[in-house]
Amino acid sequence: MKKTTIIILQSWLWFVGSAAAAECPAGNFADGLGACQQCPAGTYAEEPGSEQCTVAQPGAYVPHEGERLTYLCPEGTYSEVFGAVSCKPCEHAQGLGNFRCQKPDYGLAAH
């Protein structure tokens, strides 16, 4: 059931909010006024009822606002920052979730 808070100040009627944290869907968070807001790009909220968004870790990205998941950088790309909205190309990046662009070291040492 939605809960609405009403505050009356000097004959003005203000509707402060109409959603509790438990009512916000995944990809959203409850702001301090009780309203649901979409998580900004670069962040996500996996579970309904989140009170904050989670920042994407290096090697991952969140391309749009309102996302409930983070995405690993695809092969051939990387992301070295927190809160990335895309991954950068890198010819050396192998596999998923690369957080830096570095030529692979295959353990070959000069003799």
From TrEMBL:
Residues 1-21 form the signal peptide. Keywords: Signal. It comes from the Bacteria. InterPro entries: Growth_fac_rcpt_cys_sf (IPR009030). Gene3D superfamilies: Tumor Necrosis Factor Receptor, subunit A, domain 2. PANTHER family: INSULIN-LIKE GROWTH FACTOR BINDING PROTEIN,N-TERMINAL (PTHR46967), KERATIN-ASSOCIATED PROTEIN 16-1-LIKE (PTHR46967:SF1). This is Tyrosine-protein kinase ephrin type A/B receptor-like domain-containing protein. It comes from Pseudobacteriovorax antillogorgiicola. The lineage of its organism: Bacteria, Pseudomonadati, Bdellovibrionota, Oligoflexia, Oligoflexales.
